Write a sequence for this structure.
């Protein structure tokens, strides 16, 4: 207990310790004063905006334009802190990116927390602060939310759900069902960093060079892509779980087209390639949190590619392949040696090899 | 990781392929022992680039595939027990037992944990003193040293709530068993680089001498595999049989003596059943008597189970290099990674999975 009670302005400066507790207690989710304190002193302090500060049960916002993109996602990553990021910023960027893949400008987010009793408040603060920073970077406000605390052992530290809302200010149809034969597939940069960063942290694996998560917002890059490509941009998708291989397979199935890619054009950082090699993992299947694949008609592909390269998030963008009419729903890859193989959709998560 | 680029270099690979084409004058059958090599071959489409006269057949070198059904059933029984925390490499979780797999047991509430290193079992045992922690010790000579270290560490730290369900297997006895078979068609071996890193290549000297079969130690990158194949072809064409080491950056003649001592201290050689193949004499490792308390089978009173393999799966024939996965009538229709009939379709190193994942259209159209 501090010597003298903290004044409200002390909370505003430093929201923790919120009370005598240094871990999350069941009471923090029980709807009483403890919960009020947590919300005012941590969440509102961090996410501060007009809609949220009204503290109504809902947020009332106005949306410019009339076409909306909405997406929701839950984040349950373990460990919650990993090289290059944590669950908080992942919960922001993951949803921002999903919204952005329609070409929308993300504006608002909701945040729901499921926290395990006993979770350190200091860790919660770190998570929340990085959510605040990530939201700022992405230009979105967190306007409403929810907190539940579950009994110890009934959850795993913290789960975060975010829902994002964005406005679509362009007239084009951008969808995974929209790929056309002849389209070029553009990948925005090096792959597999997020998955390997999480794995190395979780398993205490040490690699020669540390691998950092690539978690980042992609809406800025998306607006460049649309500016440059307009209606020639047929599909966009961020390559999260399942990696680039999953995105390509989803595209091929949804649009009933074949996809052919070139192994030699797929950029992988040497440290990531080394780590994947060691564990017998294929980087094509490993998760990313700041990379997208765009399908763009051939005549505009080069233009879109240069626009992407001019943006920080797309500076390593490359054309990795093309859409074909034959072999619908199948993704094939020309290997480094020139032979062809299937790039299948993984049944489940890849597992490192035994020997 | 410069070495990776070097060993994936397409120009070097194509030069090797040209040389292989130059050297081959008649058909040869070469077996790569290790499932990791099988996957690398199919992932890189190497089999497709070789001349038709060079046939690669896939060997029994996948620990998941050859773990006998009895042991899988024992694992399932143990993992279902309320007092047991069952610790395993992830690959083992989807291997089908008679009616379920470890993932199913886990979803039914069994405490099944995936680890990357056996030593994690020590930590789990210490964190859960009131539970019985059982480690599923599978794998070849590559994983046996770590299992041995697990036992040694447990002895040192006086950990009593830990035991091992041991299913370690040894590569050289399987190689000789295949060569002894009247149906054998293997004329040369690509030996598994990982295994040789631990055991050294001297363990193959007697096989080369007794069976007059070329053995080339190879790694897992395209250039490794192609130079291994080239060396084997050169030997076959000239009637030679010797050991060559194409994986010198990792492998020596003696191997890792420390790891060998670890294995020898904790384990002794025993006969072992290989899934789909049957008993191969002196092809397995079991705990030495002095470590018998770490043996999960007596600790939990698991008596010998006798279980029949599913009748339709020919994975034993495939693991002996007698047929290829696409020659199995179940391949790609009744048997897929989502509905596996045999372990070879499950394991990330299984030959059937490799064909399915990378080449199933080619192979189906060939049928
Ligand atoms: S394809 Fe399936 S059934 Fe046939 S051998 Fe392989 S695992 Fe067994």
């Amino acid at each position: 207990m501090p010597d003298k009670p903290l004044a409200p302005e002390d909370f505003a400066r430093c929201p923790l310790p919120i009370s005598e507790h240094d871990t999350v207690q069941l009471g923090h989710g029980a709807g009483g004063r403890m919960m009020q304190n947590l919300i005012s002193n941590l969440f509102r302090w961090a996410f501060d905006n007009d809609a949220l500060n009204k503290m109504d049960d809902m947020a009332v916002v106005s949306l410019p334009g009339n076409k909306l993109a909405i997406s929701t996602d839950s984040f349950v990553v373990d460990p919650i802190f990993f090289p290059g990021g944590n669950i908080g910023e992942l919960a922001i960027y993951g949803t921002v990116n999903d919204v952005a893949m329609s070409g929308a400008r993300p504006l608002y987010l909701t945040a729901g927390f499921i926290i395990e009793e006993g979770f350190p408040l200091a860790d919660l603060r770190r998570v929340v602060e990085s959510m605040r920073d990530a939201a700022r970077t992405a230009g979105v406000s967190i306007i409403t939310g929810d907190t539940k605390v579950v009994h110890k052992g009934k959850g795993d530290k913290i789960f975060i759900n975010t829902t994002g809302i964005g406005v679509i200010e362009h007239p084009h149809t951008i969808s995974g069902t929209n790929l056309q034969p002849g389209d070029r597939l553009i990948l925005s940069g090096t792959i597999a960093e997020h998955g390997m960063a999480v794995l190395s942290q979780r398993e205490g694996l040490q690699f020669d060079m540390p691998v950092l998560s690539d978690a980042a917002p992609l809406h800025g890059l998306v607006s460049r892509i649309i500016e440059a490509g307009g209606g020639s941009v047929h599909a966009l998708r961020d390559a999260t779980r399942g990696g680039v291989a999953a995105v390509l397979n989803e595209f091929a199935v949804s649009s009933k087209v074949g996809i052919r890619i070139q192994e030699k054009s797929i950029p992988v950082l040497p440290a990531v390639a080394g780590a994947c090699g060691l564990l017998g993992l294929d980087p094509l299947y490993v998760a990313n949190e700041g990379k997208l694949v765009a399908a763009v008609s051939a005549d505009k592909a080069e233009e879109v590619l240069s626009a992407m390269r001019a943006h920080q998030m797309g500076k390593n963008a490359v054309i990795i392949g093309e859409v074909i009419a034959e072999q619908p729903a199948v993704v094939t890859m020309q290997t480094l040696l020139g032979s062809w193989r299937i790039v299948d959709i993984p049944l489940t998560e890849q597992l490192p090899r035994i020997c | 990781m410069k070495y990776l680029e070097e060993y994936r270099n397409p120009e070097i690979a194509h030069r090797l392929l040209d040389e292989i084409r130059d050297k081959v004058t008649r058909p040869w059958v070469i077996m790569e022992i290790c499932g990791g090599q099988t996957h690398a071959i199919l992932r890189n489409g190497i089999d497709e680039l070789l001349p038709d006269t060079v046939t690669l057949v896939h060997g029994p070198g996948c620990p998941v595939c050859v773990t006998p059904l009895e042991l899988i059933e024992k694992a399932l029984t143990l993992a279902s027990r309320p007092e047991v925390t069952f610790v395993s490499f992830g690959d083992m979780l989807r291997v089908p037992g008679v009616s379920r797999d470890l993932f199913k047991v886990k979803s039914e509430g069994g405490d099944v944990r995936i680890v990357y290193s056996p030593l994690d079992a020590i930590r789990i045992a210490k964190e859960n003193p009131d539970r019985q922690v059982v480690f599923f010790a599978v794998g070849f000579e590559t994983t046996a040293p770590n299992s041995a270290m697990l036992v040694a560490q447990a002895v040192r730290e006086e950990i009593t709530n830990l035991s091992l369900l041991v299913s370690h297997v040894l590569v050289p006895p399987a190689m000789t068993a295949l060569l002894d078979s009247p149906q054998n068609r293997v004329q040369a071996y690509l030996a598994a680089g990982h295994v040789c890193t631990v055991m050294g290549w001297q363990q193959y000297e007697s096989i080369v001498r007794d069976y007059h079969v070329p053995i080339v130690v190879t790694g897992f990158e395209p250039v490794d595999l192609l130079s291994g194949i080239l060396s084997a072809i050169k030997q076959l064409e000239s009637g030679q049989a010797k050991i060559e080491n194409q994986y010198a950056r990792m492998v020596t003649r003696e191997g890792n003596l420390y790891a060998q001592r670890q294995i020898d201290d904790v384990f002794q050689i025993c006969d072992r059943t290989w899934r789909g193949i049957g008993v191969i004499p002196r092809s397995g490792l079991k705990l030495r008597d002095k470590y018998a308390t770490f043996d999960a089978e007596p600790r939990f009173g698991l008596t010998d189970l006798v279980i029949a393999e599913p009748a339709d799966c020919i994975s034993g024939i495939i693991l002996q290099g007698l047929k290829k996965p696409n020659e199995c009538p179940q391949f790609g229709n009744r048997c897929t990674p989502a509905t596996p009939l045999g372990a070879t379709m499950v394991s990330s190193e299984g030959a059937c999975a490799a064909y399915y994942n990378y080449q199933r259209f080619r192979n189906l159209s060939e049928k």
